[in-house]
Amino acid sequence: MRDPHEIGINDRMGKRAASDDVETLRRNVERALRDAVGRDEVLPMLTRLARSAKPESEAWLLAHRHLAELVAEHEPWRAALFARRVVRVDDDNDGAWAVLGLAQSLLGNYRAAAAAYQRALHLVPHNPWYAHNLGHLLDFALARPADALPWLASAHAREPKQDEISASYAHALARVGRLALAKRVLKPVIARGATADQHALWRWIDAGAPERDAAPARPPRKPARRRARATPKAQRS
C-alpha cells in the first residue's frame, strides 16, 4: 500500500508540472502573437492553451479571446462562442466585445453586433476602429446614417488618413444629403490611389447619391490585433 504522504507529494508535483506547462504554453502563445506568427501556426497553440488552462483563468481568457479573433472571418459562429465565454467572465474586456461585434455582423445579427460595439466603446471611448465599425453598421446594415455620423466623424477625426474610415464617413454623409462634405472627405482617398469600391463610391456621390444605386453593404473591419487584457475582474486589485 502506498504511503499517503508520498501520494500527496506526487499529486502536488503533478499539479505543479501541469501549471508550469500551461505557463510555458502561455508565454509561447504571447510571443507568437507579439511576433505576428501566421494563423496556421498560432491557432493550434491557442487551442491547446484553451484546453489546458484552468477555466476562467487568465491564460484561459487569453486563449479564448484570440481564438475568437483568429476564426472570426471563417467561422463567425465559433468566434461568437469564444468571445461570449470571455465576456461572461470579464465583462470589461473591450477586445472580446469588439470581436463579438465582428462575429455577429458576419452572421447578419446586426443589432447584436451594434450592441457589442457599443459596449466596447463604453469601455474604450476613443478607439477609432470601434467607432468606425459601429457607425458602419448603423449606416449600411441598419439604414440609420444620421445615427452613424457622430461615430464616423469621431473615427475620422482620430484617423483622417485611414481610407476605409474616410470612405464609410463619406457614404453616411452622402446618404443624409451632405454631398459637398462627402466629396471633401473622400477626395484625398481618391488622390492616394483608391480601390475600385472607393472609385464607385465617388461616382455615386458625384451623381447625387441616388438611393436606387446605393453602394452594397460591406462587413466591418477586423479589430486590430493587440494583446488582450484578460484578467478576470475577481482577480484584479
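the 2nd protein, sequnce then structure:
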Amino acid sequence: MRNFDLTPLMRSTIGFDQLDKLFDAAFRETTRDTSYPPYNIVKLDQDKYRITMAVAGFAEEDLDITVQDNVLIVKGQIKNRDEGVEYLHRGIAQRAFEHRFQLADHVRVVGASLENGLLNIDLERVVPEQSRPRKIAIKASA
C-alpha cells in the first residue's frame, strides 16, 4: 500500500481534517468485492441523486439501510431460506452483502423503495444558508 504525504495540500486548505479518513476508506474498498449486488448511481437533478441496487430475491425485511457519520451502509441478509427446496439450477445469487457509500457533507437520505427487485435509495444535497456563498462588504477606512 502506498503512503501519501498530504502536507503540501494541507498548507493551502482549512477544515479538511477528514480527508485522510476518506483516502483510507477508498483504499480499503478496493480490497473488498464491491461487485455484488450490482448498483447504479444516478444524478437526477442539480442536488438529487439515486442509488439503485439489484437485489433480486431479497424482501424488505431482508434489507437494512443505515446512515452513520456520513456513511450510508446497505446490508442484505436473507432471513427465511428456502428449506426443503431442491434446486436443479440456482443462478440467482442471494448471498449476504454489505455496501458502504461515503456521503459528502450536507447529503442526506430522503427515502428508499423496493420495486421489481430494485432497491432505490434517494439522496438530496441540502446546503444550509450559512454554507452558501455570500458577499463580504469591505468597509472604507476613516
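The beta strands are 39-43, 48-54, 63-68, 71-76, 97-102, 107-115, 118-125. Residues 19-29 form the longest helix (11 residues).
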